[in-house]
Amino acid sequence: MTGRAGQAPALLVAGTTSDAGKSVVAAGLCRWLARQGVRVAPFKAQNMSLNSVVTPDGAEIGRAQAMQAAAAGIEPSAAMNPVLLKPGGDRTSQVVVRGRPVGEADAVGYRAYRDRLREVAAESLAELRSEYDAVICEGAGSPAEINLRAGDIANMGLARAADLPVLVVGDIDRGGVFASMYGTLALLEPEDQALVTGFVVNKFRGAPELLEPGLEMVRGLTGRPVLGVLPWLDGLWLDVEDSLALSVDRGPAQAPVGGRSLRVAVVRLPRISNFTDIDALTVEPGVDVRFVTGAHELDDADLVVLPGSRATVSDLAWLRERGLDRAVAERARRGLPVLGICGGYQMLARRIDDEVESGAGSVDGLGLLPVGVRFAKEKTLGRPRGTAYGEDVVGYEIHHAVAEVDWAGASPGTAGGTEAPRPFLDGCRTGSVWGTTWHGAFENDAFRRAFLADVARVADRDFRPAPDTDFAEARASRLDALGDLVEDHMDTDAVWRLLEKGAPEGLPVIPPAGPPL
């Protein structure tokens, strides 16, 4: 497969909004191309997400790009997401470049990085185009963020720099899809409009014949076709990058193999990160997972999970404001299961010393594990291996905090007593409370089943995990479903032409409605 100028071909999947379906369409295109024998790689120049993963080369990138790499049948690398912004508050983000943190910046301070980041993005895309047969790029947010266009490196700024044809995805389930498609195009500069080659309607449910007149009108108004109408498909929630995509109930309900279901309540922290840790639980028959924000919602849970956080100290304060700290402590006193992962593990500690992430200094933790936490300037990135419950476990870790277990200490145990800690992965367990910094542990099938069986025992629930649930197989089947969406519902011949020839010349320009912007 050859593109123009001797480079491997590439195209950009943009969206009318965040969570319009860019990641899904990009992954579907990667899967479809891989099925055709094309060596394809995903790329997102700049990603703002708290869902990240560690690549085999030790880099931190957005989880969605790792998922797209899996769809392409390749290992993820730093080049696939060269710039990652991890919000730590409403105004500041950690800036991760080629998988390594380089500092914190607010919107104004970010401008100092902009020129260098543009170079890094261009170099990374060129690297992928030299190594693969094709590259599917994903935009960020919307290309019509006109207040940000001057510094854009992920949408039309990238498309202009690399001469990429652009597809714009719109979410019809939100309503107003035709207006958002037309408006997105109309707000772009003429040179940007020249690269927008077509639209994709996502999440359609209903009779296609009712939609057809609108598709024809879009073509007439913009001079560009709708190259696909992707139907609504349940169960495509794996590896989402944005907490906008979180629902109260996570994943499809499945009947238990035997006994009753196991109820898992995941606390939806304001700065929740790596909530994809929970995805593997949802593929287990009889495990009902929901995200909660109120103390009363923990009452009927068999397992409460405190997930990762990009802002441990402030999210801990949020727990206390809502009374969730007391509810979690009461569960531990009664011997009911609680699991903390990464930031959630840090919250379970006795003390947290943080001069790095929040600058808050020394803060009391929940005191449910005999652990002291201190934040280091250097970020730990790794793909550790170990054992738990006699099973092999592979995970990944992304954290500044260092948790030190007081193995001679004790914490509240079952029925109000005290209990010495026992090892659990890299963390510890006391009574019915577990803590670890490892993400992705539940993707290990045998470990997941053993852990859930122990939780059921501790919670006194008649629940038995399915003996043969395969998370990797479940993920692969969903990636195949994305490839099927592209193959069955998109004009793949037109996609081939865009990859091989780029944007056609002479696409009409929609004049601005008012004076020049």
From TrEMBL:
SUPFAM superfamilies: Class I glutamine amidotransferase-like, P-loop containing nucleoside triphosphate hydrolases. The keyword Membrane does not apply. The active site is at C342, H439. Residues 12-236 form the CobQ/CobB/MinD/ParA nucleotide binding domain. InterPro entries: Class_I_gatase-like, CobQ/CobB/MinD/ParA_Nub-bd_dom, CobQ_GATase1, CobQ_N, CobQ_synth, GATase_3, P-loop_NTPase. PROSITE patterns: GATASE_COBBQ, GATASE_TYPE_1. Keywords: Cobalamin biosynthesis, Glutamine amidotransferase. Residues 263-446 form the CobB/CobQ-like glutamine amidotransferase domain. Pathway: Cofactor biosynthesis; adenosylcobalamin biosynthesis. Belongs to the CobB/CobQ family. CobQ subfamily. NCBIfam families: cobQ (TIGR00313), PRK00784.1 (NF001989). Catalyzes amidations at positions B, D, E, and G on adenosylcobyrinic A,C-diamide. NH(2) groups are provided by glutamine, and one molecule of ATP is hydrogenolyzed for each amidation. This is Cobyric acid synthase. It comes from Nocardiopsis endophytica.
